[in-house]
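Risk register update: the risk of archive-format incompatibility is retired. Evidence:
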Amino acid sequence: MHIKGRKARYAVSAIALAGVTALALSACTTSGSSSTSSAAKGGTVTVAVVNDLTSLNSQTPQGNLDTNGQVGYLNGSYGTGFQYIDNNFKIVHDDKFGKFEKTSDDPLTVKYTLNKDDKWSDGEPITADDMILAWAMNSGYYDSATLDDEGKVTKGTQYFTIAGSTAGVDATAFPTVGDDNTSITLKYSTPYVDWELVNPIAQPAHIVAKKAGLSSAADLTKLLKGLPKGDKDNPVAPDATLKKAADFVNTGYDITAFPTDKDLLVSSGPFVVSAWTPGQSVTMTKNKYYAGGLKPNVDKIVFRIIPDANAQVTALQNGEVDIINPQASADTLTALKATSAKVLAGDQVSYDHLDLNFGSTVFQDAKVREAFLKTIPRQQILDSIVTPVNPKAKVLNSQIWLPSQDDYAASVKQNGSEKYDKVDIEGAKALLGGATPTVRILYNTNNPNRVDEFQAIQASAAKAGIKVEDSGSPDWSTLLPGGNYDASLFGWISPGAGTTQIPQLFSSAGGGNYNRYTATNDIAIKTQTTLDKDELVKLEQQIDKQTFTDGYGLPLFQLPGVFGVNARVDGVKYMGNQNGPFWNFWEWSVKSSKK
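Archived output:
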């Protein structure tokens, strides 16, 4: 979704649009704010979340889950560092962590300079070596891979696999290091529309170097500087050391229990993961070495995993949690209003959708795709899930824009979505010509909305002779990249700024292109270097139209969002993007200590 002023994230969307965050049309460049000195200090805030932790690296295709991203937001591996996005979807610079500035328009050149006091949570300094590693990860500079339509490497090497896209960032040369190893300068060969949202801090280079068999972060930088840019037309044998480093970043942070290897916990942000009981809770404790501008008042933040919305409300009422961000429904709102909690509500930068898997045998036939989509009861789904919360809500008819955005109506007029305005069982039967295909749908069985969506689709499709099989799983997010299904139901939630989600979803190598759709690849990549707003809108309209023409899938609805906050916590403000209530954690304070 192209979002201007959020993943809003819709309250129940479970997947975050990740990678390099996109640039908002109106940007704020003031220094990061911190809480006033009069705020209460110390204590613990407990927040209920729907999904459990699965990875300490949310920037991989399999790790791209909302809870992982929120943990990453607190520990600095995603979304905080040089900047963050506020609840007006503006970019705010944190000059206490480091400063960055555009030093040239032609060629586009940006310099990042760290604060000399910046340290990792193990006491090691944060240096230009760390920024070089983050650049290598996000740019794809060393890749020489040719990918097939299913995103598999057929020739050459792909080192780092990211949930986002390298488009735009890949047009940079090896950075220039300066200022006693505290700065890097990126020079782009072509303009990059979202340059202000590039945040060159990710995993610690000294840890990645260690896992690759190198003695220091400096040695990793030396290795990277000595390697040539990847050339997919003339690929060379992969560098074994870089491959080892990349493999660790790609999968080494995926966890099923609290890590015995403490290297995985090293953080650049205000908090460090200090405990995890799978299925129950994640505890994050203040990082004593953090020197940025987002210093928290509270000592601990605890994530309580409570998938059920009613159970979240009960936990809030009983004082077991302080903040909830449940799936919004009429019942949830009614229950919340019956408590003494503060209720914060608004739209999310998030939407639920049905995607068809273009790698699936059953959907190789365009007529079968169209027939199946004609059976999707979108109005029925909206009326049962969203209308009770937002009576003005309408079925979503764009893959690119949300209804509140200026360009939504114009795109809907030209994108062909009217073909699916109403369920057309007879039209579906005519397209199938007597065929009775089977469609396996992947979805989150722990999410009541997704269960309702699946059951409505299953019942409607059966009327046209289509058998819909239940491939739902509580582990759906880890199964999504594998493609062992014909269609998937889930939600996207964006940061609320920028356009990098376009190639993430609609380019062949996009880290969020789980349905292996390739028809819009060139257009999606072009959006990242198109600075003319009118031309950018035209490109986005082309993608919107092409996806409906090809039977990409169907958007269902924009999600409403709601927070519940008990009286002992101050400073929580509504935010509709993927960070939800965590977006301003440094402003939270508690009225009484809770250890």
